[in-house]
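$ ./design --mode recover --in tokens.txt
reading tokens...
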């Protein structure tokens, strides 16, 4: 019986050419001077229909930006690894119920988080790895729905973004705010 099992041919089904899981995603970059990142984030939150996850590479940058925007009256929250579980859960619920326009986070929310019809993912900084970019992007445009991925770049980081996305099957174009 062991020979029957080892000689059995397992059918392989390759659907990579038919994969349209990211069909609704559009990828953009926005040139943002470092000193104007707060202003651009604030302006994005006032774009009609904006509701998005905003990813940061560093917790310190996330916290600083959250405080600045909350001070200006923008409804943002955060989902960070240094928060306790109840605080993270409350922020996520507020975001899902659209009481928050933006949810600031790090790669802690890049996997396993499913928010129905999330229209925007914003990378406030160029992600450090291709994997981070893909997982962050995967929070929007799920199940064929439309979604936008916007990455903030500076003159010295645009090269990094283009290098990061070179081997991916995404077309990234510049937009203006």
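writing sequence...
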């Amino acid at each position: 019986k062991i020979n029957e099992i080892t000689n059995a041919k397992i059918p392989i089904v390759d659907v990579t050419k038919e994969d349209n899981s990211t069909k609704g995603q559009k990828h953009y970059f926005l040139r943002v001077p470092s000193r104007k990142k707060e202003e651009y984030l604030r302006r994005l939150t006032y774009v009609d229909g904006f509701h998005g996850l905003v990813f940061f590479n560093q917790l310190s940058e996330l916290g600083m930006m959250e405080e600045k925007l909350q001070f200006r009256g923008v409804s943002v929250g955060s989902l960070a690894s240094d928060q306790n579980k109840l605080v993270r859960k409350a922020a996520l619920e507020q975001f899902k119920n659209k009481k928050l326009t933006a949810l600031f986070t790090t790669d802690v929310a890049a996997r396993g988080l499913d928010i129905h019809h999330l229209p925007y993912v914003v990378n406030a900084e160029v992600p450090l790895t291709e994997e981070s970019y893909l997982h962050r992007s995967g929070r929007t445009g799920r199940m064929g729905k439309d979604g936008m991925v916007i990455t903030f770049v500076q003159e010295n980081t645009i090269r990094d973004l283009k290098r990061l996305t070179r081997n991916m099957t995404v077309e990234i174009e510049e937009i203006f705010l």
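exit 0
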